[in-house]
């Protein structure tokens, strides 16, 4: 299960570049993840153009971390542009923040994914200290999924352990950031997120096929070993 | 010292509405704060149009909370649009996150402001528990300022106490969110941030003058009482 992150932006003409990548791999992958660099460059209207005829998973990874009213307002705009999944930080807490976001997303039929750990070292300074509380919060808010970094597989394992089987685990960091395809899924993730390895390739379709094949081989291996 | 937050967006034509507010109050206030709802609606190019001839404090309040490379990339784009101050979350930590953001901002001559507490109740669930660590981090990163909510004056006082006199304290929540003009400055803030009370008014200029006058009266009062 593969999700393509449309970053880093490779060309000045972001809309046409994104369209090319999307058309190149849309039939191979489960969905796409877009971030703040893309969104502030092309805005909601540009985003509509890129994904106007795409109906798969479209994740806005703005790592929302604001008060509830602001997050709800952002999600209303994103939803208009076809976004059907948003990523927010567990850190902002429930009351007056995530409770409002989740409420708004239910109305809009938008899935919520919470960041419970990140791939950079600084994640250990504050965020990782609250991992089990964040997972408890994610479960009690009944969100669709959580993010845990493929670059630290022990965290992915722990997240799956704490989250049980119902919650989806999305794992970025495959490819250019160092993790091998399949390793996060073997550690308990549902989806692996790949950016640069595919988006910076001169042939995204071929590269996506390669990642999928590596992922498949690895997953077969680890399933075999159980 | 007053900063106007350009939210919530009041009209469909966001660029012209923003320009009207900016022209109406620019000579009265220290600066403007723009948020994610505005930025994703009009993009970097729209932002340039609104602020093309403004040279005061222009704060992008995206509450950045990502890995360092992504935050640095966003700041490069914002800086092109005339933004000279960015707000990021202290909780993402230093290593691989805020260290890179601060480094990039130094190159671009952009000021960094860290969120160390927020106005919603959920801020107490995780964020507020780290208030003194966040202030220590802000001081050691030598950032320009921090955000503390005018709706909780005890937090503003504590932030000033921990931060000493060098660091700027920006305090949102004045007006529609309930705090009276001048109260945050009396508690130790440098700037009060007002949104709706001014931006939703049919006469932003008159409203800004009213807020400034109330602020002045209140500050005079509290200075007198010391």
Features:
globular, homodimer, 18% strand, 226 residues, TIM Barrel, alpha/beta
Structure description:
2 copies of one chain form a homodimer. With 226 residues, chain A is of the alpha/beta class. The first copy, chain A, has one domain (2-224): Aldolase class I (TIM Barrel). Helix content of chain A is 47%, strand content 18%. Chain A is built from 9 helices and 8 strands. Chain A has helices at residues 14-25, 36-51, 68-80, 94-108, 131-140, 153-163, 183-186, 196-199, 204-224; strands at 2-5, 31-35, 57-64, 85-89, 111-115, 145-147, 168-174, 191-194. Chain A has an 8-stranded parallel beta barrel with strand order 1-2-3-4-5-6-7-8, surrounded by 5 helices. The longest helix of chain A is centred in the last third of the chain and has 21 residues, at 204-224. The interface between A and B is large, with 48 and 49 residues.
Number of helices of chain A: 9
Query: What is the overall shape of chain A?
Result: globular
The count of domains of chain A is: 1
CATH superfamily of chain A: Aldolase class I
Helix/strand/pairing category of chain A: alpha/beta
Tell me what portion of residues of chain A adopts beta-strand conformation: 15-25%
N- to C-terminal distance of chain A = 20 Å
The count of DSSP E runs of length 2 or more, i.e. the number of strands of chain A, is 8
Q: Report the order of strands and helices of chain A.
A: EHEHEHEHEHEHEHEHH
- Kindly report the average pLDDT value of chain A: 95
* CATH architecture name of chain A: Alpha-Beta Barrel
Radius of gyration of chain A equals 17 Å
Largest interface: A-B, 48 and 49 residues
Instruction: Record the strand order, biggest sheet of chain A.
Output: 1-2-3-4-5-6-7-8
CATH class of chain A: Alpha Beta
CATH topology (fold) name of chain A: TIM Barrel
Tell me roughly what share of residues is in helical segments of chain A. 40-55%
| Quaternary | homodimer
């Amino acid at each position: 299960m593969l999700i393509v992150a449309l970053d880093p932006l490779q060309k000045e003409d972001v809309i046409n570049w994104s369209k090319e990548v999307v058309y190149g791999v849309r039939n191979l992958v489960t969905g796409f993840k877009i971030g703040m660099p893309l969104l502030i460059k092309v805005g909601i209207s540009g985003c509509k153009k890129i994904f106007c005829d795409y109906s798969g998973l479209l994740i806005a990874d703005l790592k929302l971390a604001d008060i509830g009213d602001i997050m709800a307002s952002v999600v209303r705009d994103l939803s208009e542009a076809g976004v059907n999944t948003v990523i927010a930080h567990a850190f902002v807490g429930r009351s007056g923040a995530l409770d409002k976001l989740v409420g708004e997303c239910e109305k809009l039929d938008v899935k919520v994914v919470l960041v419970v750990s990140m791939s950079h070292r600084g994640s250990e300074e504050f965020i990782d200290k609250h991992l089990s509380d964040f997972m408890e919060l994610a479960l009690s808010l009944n969100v669709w999924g959580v993010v845990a970094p493929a670059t630290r597989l022990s965290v992915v394992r722990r997240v799956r352990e704490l989250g049980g089987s119902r919650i989806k685990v999305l794992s970025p960091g495959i490819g250019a950031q160092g993790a091998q395809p399949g390793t996060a899924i073997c550690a308990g993730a549902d989806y692996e997120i790949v950016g640069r390895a595919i988006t910076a390739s001169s042939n995204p379709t071929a590269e996506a096929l390669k990642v999928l094949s590596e992922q498949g081989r690895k997953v077969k291996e680890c399933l075999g070993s159980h």
